[in-house]
Design brief:
286 residues, six-stranded mixed sheet, 8 helices, 40% helix, 17% strand
Length: 286
């Protein structure tokens, strides 16, 4: 199923068991390559390319799009039941602690980087995460360059339109799907997201660039103004000297002097005018 854009969360939030342990209460030691699934210790091997590369890129893009009051983390363990402790590839959760418990809150969004072989396992994780209270779970298929969202109603992954963007209250900027699944264009998407969020570093650099441009424009204007003033001064002085020496000027000669913009040529003409016998001798080019 292909969705129209933008993509919004579906349905109501799942019911959460109030008796569940805190989301950050551990069954396995953080920092170790293990998860606990239904009471069984499961080894989760480190990622190889392209999984690890795509996870890194996707995390950076998601980080660029979220609101500042939300954190983005990779492979953070989430206690989803009394017997299961799993770590989604990417989690987005509130920075503020739960005021009642002082502990980390459940994630709002979760992302799994998947392949054809791991899609079924990701579906099982999606069910567990949604049951725990995670609002939305997405899968990024690195082999087929596609993204999906788990649908509890369909009990299946829904294919997302690659030209769409994910819209959600935790996002300050819509999360574009095409760069999420195509690493080659992800850097541009990150830059656009930071600009849209008015990133202070980018905003400061843009402001400084505008100031530099204005200053350079003023400096160029002053230089040009000074040059024009010198040219006009030599033109006036030359015409006054010719008049004082009684050297007659035709209209074409006068026009040639006032239209000449080469300061060095005008200065040569001025030097000749002090002793030349005619305007032809003044304006003669060697």
């Amino acid at each position: 199923m292909v969705l129209s854009k933008p993509i919004q969360a579906e349905g109501e939030l799942p019911l959460v068991d109030a008796e569940l342990p805190p989301v950050d209460e551990r069954l396995v030691a953080p920092g170790t390559p293990y998860e606990m699934v239904d009471g069984e210790l499961v080894y989760v091997p480190p990622s190889d390319p392209p999984h690890g590369e795509r996870q890194s890129k996707a995390s950076a893009l998601i980080e660029a799009c979220v609101r500042p009051e939300f954190a983005v983390a990779t492979e953070v363990l989430t206690r989803v039941s009394r017997t299961t402790d799993i770590a989604p590839d990417i989690s987005v959760y509130p920075r503020a602690r739960d005021p009642a418990t002082g502990r980390r809150r459940v994630a709002e969004l979760a992302f799994e980087v998947v392949s054809a072989q791991s899609l079924a396992s990701a579906a099982d994780n999606a069910r567990r995460l949604l049951a725990r209270g995670v609002r939305r779970v997405f899968a990024i298929d690195v082999e087929r360059n596609r993204a999906m969202e788990w649908s509890s109603g369909l009990e299946a992954w829904r294919l997302l339109d690659i030209a769409a963007c994910i819209a959600d209250p935790v996002l300050a900027v819509g999360l574009a799907i095409e760069p999420l699944v195509k690493a080659a264009i992800m850097d541009d998407a990150i830059a656009r997201a930071l600009i849209a969020k008015n990133n202070p570093v980018i905003a400061a650099e843009n402001a400084a660039s505008q100031r530099r441009g204005k200053a350079e424009g003023r400096a160029e204007g002053l230089v040009e103004g000074r040059a024009e003033g010198l040219v006009e001064g030599v033109q006036r002085s030359l015409l006054q000297l010719l008049d004082a020496r009684g050297i007659p000027l035709e209209a074409a000669d006068r026009a040639r002097i006032v239209e000449e913009q080469d300061l060095r040529r005008l200065e040569r003409w001025h030097a000749r005018a002090a002793h030349a016998a005619s305007i032809a001798d003044v304006l003669a080019d060697s």
